[in-house]
Design brief:
mainly beta, 2 strands, elongated
Length: about 35
């Protein structure tokens, strides 16, 4: 299952697929969002 980085932007919410090995913060999946 892909992991998404949720970015809040003026045009809405953008989910960007991130590399788990490089993520040092909490990420959200489609299910928890």
């Amino acid at each position: 299952m892909p992991v998404y980085d949720v970015l809040e932007t003026p045009v809405g919410t953008v989910r960007v697929v991130v590399d788990r090995a490089r993520v040092s913060r909490v990420t959200l999946t489609e299910e928890n969002w």
